[in-house]
Amino acid sequence: xxxxxxxxxxxxxxxxxxxxxxxxxxxxxxxxxxxxxxxxxxxxxxxxxxxxxxxxxxxxxxxxxxxxxxxxxxxxxxxxxxxxxxxxxxxxxxxxxxxxxxxxxxxxxxxxxxxxxxxxxx
Length: 122
Description:
Shape: elongated
Distance between the termini: 34 Å
Low-confidence stretches: none
Order of helices and strands: EEEEEEHEE
Radius of gyration: 14 Å
Structural class: mainly beta
Helix content: under 10%
Largest sheet: 4 strands, mixed
Strand content: 35-45%
Mean pLDDT: 85
């Protein structure tokens, strides 16, 4: 299991958390669990969230899939707290994400969300 929290390569952070996942193994991945923490770098306030993705969220060997946390209800889009630090704080934040799947090692990464609150579409 390999993943990255989008965006990468200096792109602007979207208005929701996206986790790009890639199966680098030989067997399908299932049983995904996601634990993520927002830390406001100004106030040091933190919030953590847990999500068990549905059994239908599987990744075949060599394939990739993106989990979105944004309350749209679309395929691969999962519930989130509209009142979270990510959405309401204008301060920069550290976002730590841990992802696990059955039979794969837990993966962890941290990205930084710039100050300014949630991004809005242009």
